[in-house]
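Treating backbone geometry as a discrete language has practical consequences that deserve illustration. The sequence in question and its structure tokens are set out directly beneath this paragraph.
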Amino acid sequence: MKKSALLALCLLLASCAMQDVTRYQAAEPKLDLLSYFIGHTEAWGMFQKHDGEVARRFHVDITGSLQDGALMLDERFHYDDGSSAQRVWTLKRQADGRWLGRAADVKGEAIGEIAGNALHWKYTLLLPVDGSTYEMQFDDWMFLIDGSTMINRASMRKFGIEFGQVTLFFRKQT
């Protein structure tokens, strides 16, 4: 009996901790991925370990284009240690309004939902670290602040344990 009550309490607390993107339905300005990302966007970000220590900073040049009905995002990362990387996303809006995304270093598909000014993504990133590749689950939230500014915060987990967070600030270039 005590074990059942404890399990029920844990499940209740876990469900309360989960955010639902629809809570942002009325938030302005409304996020439109196509109008925001087509063209040139820059982003500045950092990765923080679970204890808050900043482990890596980076700048991203993003070129967005529409190809065969899909939003293509060519992201060029420049890290504070002098290294660089590229990720190319293919994002497709589904009939139900959700977005599906693919990239070479994403396992399967990213699944995203937009409501109001918010986009919530979930995906598994194949993260190379010191010659090994780790499957890290991302719980990614993006919030449009105004017509040119967006803030992104992602929790990075493995086996349900948070290893760190990624924070990005986007600026749409005109």
The two ends are 62 Å apart (CA to CA). The domain at 27-172 is CATH 2.40.128.20 (Lipocalin).
